[in-house]
Amino acid sequence: MRGLLFVAVSLVVAAGAFWAGTRHSQHAAMSSGSEGTRKILYYVDPMNPAHTSDKPGLAPCGMKMEPV
């Protein structure tokens, strides 16, 4: 009986810690908010980082250019 109680309490504590960590990471991601103020310097091909461009578009491999 004591072992079962220990396992149940451990599971509740683990679930609570997981929930608290998830809430903390979501809050930290929302509060960073600096994404809108950053300036795009150039665009890069995700498959070939040596290929860059000053405008968005498609890379030679057909993938969308990623902002840097």
Overview of this protein structure:
With 68 residues, the chain is mainly alpha-helical. It has two domains: 31 residues; 30 residues, no CATH class. It is 46% helix and 9% strand. The protein has one helix and three strands; from the N terminus they run αβββ. A three-stranded antiparallel sheet has the order 2-1-3, with no helix packed on it. The longest helix is centred in the N-terminal third of the chain and has 31 residues. It is elongated. The termini are far apart.
Keywords summarizing the entry:
68 residues; mainly alpha; single chain; 2 domains
Give the strand line-up of the largest sheet.
2-1-3
> What would you call the shape?
elongated
Most strands sheet: 3 strands, antiparallel
Count of discrete structural domains: 2
Weakly predicted, low-confidence segments: none
Question: What's a quick, concise take on this entry?
Answer:
The protein has one helix at 2-32; strands at 43-44, 52-53, 66-67.
Question: What is the secondary structure topology, with strand pairs?
Answer:
Blueprint: H1 2-32, E1 43-44, E2 52-53, E3 66-67
Antiparallel strand pairs: 1-2, 1-3
